[in-house]
Amino acid sequence: MYALSKRVISQYIRTGCRRRLRLDLYSSDAARRMAGVPLKDVARPGLRLLTEQGRQFEREKFAELVELFPAHVLSGAMQDFAVGEERVFQPMELRERIRHVQPNDFLLESEYDVVPGFIQAHHLTDLVDGRAIAGGGTLALRRVRPDIIRVVPAAGCPRRAIQPDGTLLGIAGADQRPGLRIIDIKATGEASPAHFAELAY
User: What angle do helix axes 193-200 and 6-15 make, rounded to 10 degrees?
Assistant: First the structure.
C-alpha cells in the first residue's frame, strides 16, 4: 500500500510537509483511490519541461562518459528518448555485474534492491512488515537505480566508507576490496539538501 523511494524522500526534505509525505507514500493511484485520497496532480507543464531538460542533460553526461572511457562504461542497451522517460538504458542488475567490475569502471543506471541490513540498521523493520502502520498495510522500499556507480581502486589515495549511522570510517590500506562511489546527475548549479538525501538513500 505504501512505498518509499528516493523521490519521496527528496520531496519531503524540500517541503518538510508531513501531509505531503503521507500522500506521496501511497504506492499507486489504485492505493490512493482505495484510501479515498486525491490523485497526484501531474498537469504542471513547467515542471514537466524541467524534468525533460534534466533527462536530456543526463543523456549528454552518459554520452560523454562513453566517449572518454569506452572500455570502462557498463550499461544496458540505450533506449530511444521518450517524453516522461524514467531511464535511459534497459535494466541492468548490479548483482549480476558487481563480481566482474574492474577499478575505474562506471556502471550506468544499474539497479539493486534495498537489503535487509539497511532496513535493520535504520530501524524500518516494523514499517516494512506493517506492525507500525495503523490500519494495516506495509511499506515497500522501491528498488534503487543510481545514475552512476564508479568502482574506486583499492590503492592510490586514502579511502573512507560510510556506516549505516552516517559516520565515516577510514579504510585500512591492506583492504584491497574496491569501493563504490554513487554519482547522481543533476542539471543544477548547486546541490540541495534533498539532492544529498537522494544520494544517501
Answer: 150
Q: Do residues 27 and 140 make contact, with C-beta atoms less than 8 angstroms apart?
A: yes
- Whether residue 97 contacts residue 74, with contact meaning beta carbons closer than 8 Å, is answered with yes
88 SS3 class: coil
The one-letter amino acid at 124? L
Q: Note whether 106 and 73 are within 8 A (CB).
A: yes
Terminal-to-terminal C-alpha distance of the chain: 20
CA distance 131 to 98: 34
pLDDT tens by residue, 87-135: 889 999 999 999 899 999 999 999 999 999 889 988 899 999 988 887 7
Write down the pTM of the prediction: 0.81
The alpha carbons of the chain give a radius of gyration, in whole angstroms, of 19
For residue range 51-83, what is the model confidence (pLDDT) as tens digits? 788 888 889 999 999 999 999 999 998 888 777
Distance CA 178, CA 169 (A): 15
Please list, in sequence order, all residues whose beta carbon lies within 8 angstroms of the beta carbon of residue 31, skipping any fewer than 6 positions away. 1, 2
CB 144, CB 114: distance < 8 Å:
yes
